[in-house]
Design a protein that fits this description.
The chain has 342 residues and is α/β, with parallel strands linked by helices. It contains twelve helices and 13 strands. β5, α7 and β6 form a beta-alpha-beta unit. A seven-stranded parallel β-sheet has the order 3-2-1-4-5-6-11, with helices on both faces. A two-stranded parallel sheet has the order 7-10. Strands 8-13 form a two-stranded parallel ribbon. α1 packs across α9, α8 packs parallel to α10 and α8 packs across α12. It folds into two domains: 213 residues, NAD(P)-binding Rossmann-like Domain (Rossmann fold); 91 residues, UDP-galactose 4-epimerase, domain 1 (Alpha-Beta Complex), CATH 3.90.25.10. Bound molecules: NADP nicotinamide-adenine-dinucleotide phosphate and ligand F7E. The site of ligand F7E has 22 residues, from α5 and α8.
Length: 342
C-alpha cells in the first residue's frame, strides 16, 4: 500500500518541490489549495500532467487553514500517514501591513490543523506524522551567530511572532497528545519557483529583464541585510527525513553561510556581465519597521542525525535562478518584438 501525504501550501514554492520529491519516493500526494479567481497551480501543473499514473497519485482538494471543517473533511477522506504544514502568508514585509491576517493563517491555521489531527489520531485511531514549516525569522534580533536549535528566539515581525506561536503549539501537541510532530527551522531557501516579491527572485528576474532591454531600473530596500540562502529542492528532503526518524524532534536546516543582499547582486549582475550600481535604486518603501540584520544557521544536528547536507552552493543557486529567468525574459522579448505589450 502506498504511503499517503497531505500538504498544505502545495501551490507554493516548497509545496511544489516537496510534491515532486514525495512522488519520486512512490507516495500518493494530496494537497490543500484555496479557491482563487485565477489559476494558482502554475508550479505544480507539470505534476498532474506528467502521466496517467501520476494523475491518480497526485490530487488537489479545496480547503483553507482558516476553515477547520475543510481540514477535517480532507483528512478523514484521505487518511494520510504524513501531513506537511507549508501553508502561510509567508511574506515578512506584508505581515507588517496585515498582522492580524498573518497571525490567523500562520498561527491559528497551524492550530486548526493540529486540532484536526489530534481528533483524527485519538478518535479515528490513525497514527499521523506532522511537519511544521518553522522559520529562521524566529531568531530575528539574533542572540548569537550562528543560530542553532538552542538559540533563543527574538521575533522581529508579525510573521515571525506567529511562527513562534506555531512552533510551540507543535511541540505542545507532541508532548500533550503524543502526536509525532516536528519543527523544521528552515533558513531562507530559494529557487526559480520563488515568489517574485522575495528579494532573490526580484533581483534575478529584474537583472534578466535588464540584460534583454525589457526594464532599466530595479528598486530595492536594505542591501546590508545578510541571509543564509540555500536551494529549496535540497530543503524538502530534510522535511521528509524528519518524519522518517524513530522519534519526533526539531531541526535547523541551513547552509551555514551568510551573504548580504549586496553580495547576491554582485553574483547575479556579475554573471550577466552587468554592474548593478548602474541599475539599482534604493526605495524606502522596501525597508521594514524592524529588520532582521543577519541570519546564519548551524545545521550540524540535521547533518548528524538526519544525514542531511545542502548540495547547491550560493553561486550555483544564483546562476540557476538567472538561467531560468533569462528563458522567461527571452520569451517576453520575443513577444515585444512581435508587437505585444508584456
Ligand atoms: P509560498 O511560496 O509563499 O507558499 C505559501 C503557500 O501557502 C501557498 O501555496 C499559498 O497558497 C498557501 N496559503 C496561503 N494562505 C493559506 C491559507 N489560508 N490556507 C491554505 N493555504 C494557504 O511559501 P514557501 O516559500 O513555499 O514556504 C513554505 C512554508 O515554509 C511557509 O509556511 C513559509 O512561511 C515557511 N518558510 C519558508 C522559508 C523560505 O525561505 N521559503 C523559510 C522558512 C519557512 P496560494 O497559492 O493560494 O497563495
Ligand atoms: O527579504 C531585504 C529585506 O523578503 C530578505 C520568507 O520566505 O525567508 C523569507 O523572509 C532580505 C530582508 O525574505 C528588498 O529587508 C532588500 O532583509 O527575500 P525576503 P525574508 O524576509 O528573509 C524567511 C526564512 C521566511 O520564513 C519567510 O517566509 O532582503 N530586502 N530589498 C528586500 N526584500 C524584499 N522582499 N524586497 C526588496 O526589495
Amino acid at each position: 500500500m502506498r504511503k499517503r501525504a497531505l500538504i498544505s501550501g502545495i501551490t507554493g514554492q516548497d509545496g511544489s518541490y516537496l510534491s515532486e520529491f514525495l512522488l519520486g519516493k512512490g507516495y500518493e500526494v494530496h494537497g490543500i489549495m484555496r479557491r482563487c479567481s485565477s489559476f494558482t497551480t502554475h508550479r505544480i501543473e507539470h505534476l498532474y500532467q506528467d502521466s496517467h499514473e501520476q494523475e491518480v497519485r497526485f490530487k488537489l482538494h479545496y480547503g483553507d487553514l482558516l476553515d477547520p471543517l475543510s481540514l477535517r473533511r480532507v483528512i478523514s477522506d484521505i487518511e494520510p500517514e504524513e501531513v506537511y504544514n507549508l501553508g502561510a502568508q509567508s511574506h515578512v514585509k506584508t505581515s507588517f501591513e496585515q498582522p492580524a491576517y498573518t497571525a490567523e493563517v500562520v498561527g491559528i491555521g497551524t492550530l486548526n490543523l493540529l486540532e484536526a489531527l489530534r481528533d483524527y489520531q485519538d478518535h479515528a485511531g490513525h497514527a499521523v506524522r506532522f511537519y511544521q514549516a518553522s522559520s529562521s525569522e524566529m531568531y530575528g534580533n539574533v542572540r548569537e551567530v550562528p543560530q542553532s536549535e538552542v538559540t533563543r528566539f527574538y521575533p522581529r515581525s508579525p510573521y515571525a511572532c506567529a511562527k513562534v506561536f506555531a512552533f510551540w503549539q507543535t511541540i505542545n501537541y507532541r508532548e500533550a497528545y503524543n502526536i509525532f510532530a516536528c519543527n523544521g527551522v528552515l533558513f531562507n531557501h530559494e529557487s526559480p519557483r520563488r515568489g517574485e516579491t522575495f528579494v532573490t527572485r526580484k533581483i534575478t528576474r529584474a537583472a534578466s529583464r535588464i540584460k534583454l532591454g525589457l526594464q532599466d531600473k530595479l528598486f530595492l530596500g536594505n542591501l546590508d541585510a545578510k541571509r543564509d540562502w540555500g536551494f529549496a529542492g535540497d530543503y524538502v528532503e530534510a522535511m521528509w527525513l524528519m518524519l522518517q526518524q524513530q522519534d519526533p524532534d526539531d531541526y535547523v536546516v541551513a547552509t551555514g553561510e551568510t551573504h548580504s543582499v549586496r553580495e547576491f547582486l554582485d553574483e547575479v549582475f556579475g554573471y550577466l556581465d552587468l554592474d548593478w550600481s548602474d541599475y539599482v535604486e534604493i526605495d524606502p518603501q522596501y525597508f521594514r519597521p524592524t529588520e532582521v540584520n543577519i541570519l546564519q544557521g548551524d545545521a550540524s544536528k540535521a547533518e548528524a542525525l538526519l544525514g542531511w547536507s545542502p548540495k547547491v552552493s550560493f553561486s550555483d543557486l544564483a546562476r540557476m535562478m538567472v538561467d531560468a529567468d533569462l528563458q522567461t525574459a527571452e520569451q517576453e522579448a520575443a513577444l515585444v518584438a512581435a508587437g505585444y505589450a508584456v
